[in-house]
Amino acid sequence: METALAKTPQKRQVMFLAILLLLWEAGSEAVRYSIPEETESGYSVANLAKDLGLRVGELATRSARIHYKGDKELLQLDIKTGNLLLYEKLDREVMCGTTEPCILHFQLLLENPVQFYQTDLQLTDINDHSPEFPEREMLLKIPEGTQPGTVFPLKIAQDFDIGSNTVQNYTISTNSHFHVATHNRGDGRKYPELVLDKALDREERPELSLTLTALDGGAPPRSGTSTVRIVVLDNNDNAPEFLQSLYEVQVPENSPLNSLVVAVSARDLDAGAYGSVAYALFQGDEVTQPFVIDEKTGEIRLKGALDFEATPYYNVEIVATDGGGFSGKCTVAIEVMDVNDNAPELTMSTLSSPTPENAPETVVAVFSVSDPDSGDNGRMICSIQNDLPFLLKPTLKNFYTLVTQRALDRESQAEYNITITVTDLGTPRLKTEHNITVLVSDVNDNAPAFTQTSYTLFVRENNSPALHIGSVSATDRDSGTNAQVTYSLLPPQDPHLPLVSLVSINADNGHLFALRSLDYEALQEFEFRVGATDRGSPALSSEALVRVLVLDANDNSPFVLYPLQNRSAPCTELVPRAAEPGYLVTKVVAVDGDSGQNAWLSYQLLKATEPGLFGVWAHNGEVRTARLLSERDATKHRLVVLVKDNGEPPRSATATLHVLLVDGFSQPYPATRGGGPGPGPGRLAHRLPGGGVGLGVFALPLVSAPVRGGAAVQEEQGGLWHLVDVSGTGTLSQSYQYEVCLTGDSGTGEFKFLKPIIPNLLPQGAGEEIGKTAAFRNNFGLN
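and the corresponding C-alpha cells:
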C-alpha cells in the first residue's frame, strides 16, 4: 500500500459525499447497546442475531463478522449463539477522552448477499478516577490590609471522569480568614476561588497553610487535595489586569515548534516591584499541554506537536503576578486548525478470489475507507483503473463493494491486478493505493477445437499391423479438467465400412493406428470422423474428418492376357513367308493390378528360335517381323516375350508365343503336337485386309462370360462368332473390337480373334493407362 500526494487521476470515481452519509444516517436505524466501562472481557452484551431478526445459522453460512475502524478487535461475535461478546476491557477515557456520549460504531457484515447492519455501543462512565491537582502545593502572596471579599484564583483539579463523576465541589480546611467558592467554567468544569473573609495581619501571622480538597460526584465520591501556602506581604495596592479577559486564536496543526501562538499582555498600576508583572500558565500543565509562555513578554509559543485529530481545542489560563503577589488571570482559547496531514486508510473486509467466469454481477471485495481529517480533508473519492470490467459501489456509510461490471471470460484474461485508489479532497490531496489480485476461475464454456477441420493421411499398402499412420490434435481454451481432451472414433456414415477393424485412436493423444495390413487393390481410400471431448461438466465436444489414402506398392506382377500361358495347347500364330518387314504377327496383351508407374509395362524379346527375325515393340507389345522371310528360315518359331513393370523393384512375367511360317493360308496346317491333324478350314485364321492376323486378347473363360459392349453372336459353319469390344484396358489406350471364332470340331475348345472390326493402333506411351486395369481384371475374373 502506498501513500502519496494524489495527482488528478483519469479514472472512474465514486464520490463519497457528506450528503450521502447524512441521508444514510437519516434513513437507517442502528442497534444501540450500552455497557459501563471497565466491564470484564467475555461479557455478553446482547444477542445480536435475535435483535436483528437473523437466524443463528445464517451467521455461519453468510460469514458474519464484526468490523470496527482500523481493524481493532473490541467485540467478538459468537456465530453459534449469535451473542455479541466483549473482547477486552474498555476504558471510556482512552476510547473517547472527554467526548460525551462515548459511542463506538460497529458494523455487522454478512455475505451472500453482501449486507450491512450498523451497531452502536455506548460506554457509560464509572467513577474510576480521583481528582488530581497539578501541584501538591500552591503559593499565594497576599499583602496585609487586603480588603475582605477579595478573591484569589486557585488551580483546578483534573478528573478524567465525566458528568457527575467529575469534580463537583471544592472545600478548604477550617480557618478564620478564607473560604472557597466553587464556580462553573464555560466548558462545564468547576474551578475554585479563595475568598478572603477576614483581613490579614502580617505581624500577627506571616504565613498560613491550608488544605484544598476537590470532591467528585461519584458514589462513593473520590477526592484529591493540595496544600495552599499563603505568605502575607506588605501592602500592594493594585493587581495586574490583562488587556483582554479572553484571547481567541487559531493555530494550524502542522505549525512548527517554537512558533508564536499569541502574546498576552497585563498591566499593573503600581510602581517598582509591585508594578512588575510575571506571566505563567496558571494550571501548570506544562507536561500535558504543548505550550510554553515567556514570563517576561507573555508570548505563548508551541513546544509540542499539535494534532487536530487528537485535540481540536485548548483552553489555556494565564496568570500575571506582580512583585507584591497580586495576580490577574485571562483565558486563551486555542482552536487547532485541521490540515490535510492524514492519508485515507483502506481496510479490506472481504476478498473473493477466484471469481467464476460467465457469472453475472458478482461481489469481488468489500472494504471500508476512513480519513481522520475533517471537512474536505476528510472527504474521499474511491476509484479503480478505467480499463477493467469492475465497478465500485458505495454501500453502508464508508463501505464500498467491488463488483464485476459484466461477465468475465477467463480465456481472454485469467487474472486482474486492481489498484483501488482512495483520494481525499484536501489541499494538497493525499491518496492511498491498495492492490488486489482477482483470479478468474474456469467454466467449461469452450469445446475442443481441432487444428484442422479435415486431415489427409497417406499409408502405403502392405503395412504392418498397429502401424502409426498419423495424428489428430485438438486444443481446449479452458483450463484444468475442462481442457483435458479425449479422442474417439465416431460411427462411420458408411455402414459397410468396417472402421473398427481398420483403424484405432489413442484416446489421450489422438494418435491413429492401422489395425491390419491394407491392400490398395481392394481399398484405395476411406473416410471417417474423429471426436474430441473435454472432461468438463457438462462435457463439450467437436469432430473432424480424417481421409486415409492408401498408397500403391509394387506388389503385383504383370499378368499376360494373351497369349494364355496356362492352356493345354499353345496357340500358334500364322505368318506368311511373303510378309514384309514390320508385318504385325500378334500382340502381347498384359495388365498390372498396381497403379501409377508400378503399372507402366514395357515389352522386350527375351528369347527367340532365330534371333533377328522378329522384334517386339517396347511400349505396346506388338510382335512384328524384323526382316524379309526366306526359304531358309525354319517353319516353327518359339518366342519368349518379357513383360516388366516400372516399379521399384520391378516385377515381370513372360509370355511364350508359337509362330508358324506358311506359304499361304490355303496350305495345310502342319502337325503341331505329336503328329496330330492339321487345322481344318475352321481352324485357319481369317486373313485381314492388311495381310495380318487377328490378335488374341481373351482367355477361354471369357467366352462363357457376358461380353462387354453387347457384342453380336451368330452361328456359321458349326462355329460361334462373337463380336467382342475391348475398351482401353491394360496397355490398350483405345477401344478394339474383334470377331472371335470358337471352333466346333476342336478338342481343345480354342478360340481366336480373326479380324478387328475397328482397326485402331496403340499410340506410343500406352502404358500410362495401365493403372485402370484392376477393374478390368475384376470384371473378367482374372484376379
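(Above: one complete record from the training split.) Helices lie at 18-27, 48-52, 56-61, 92-96, 499-502, 701-704, 773-779.
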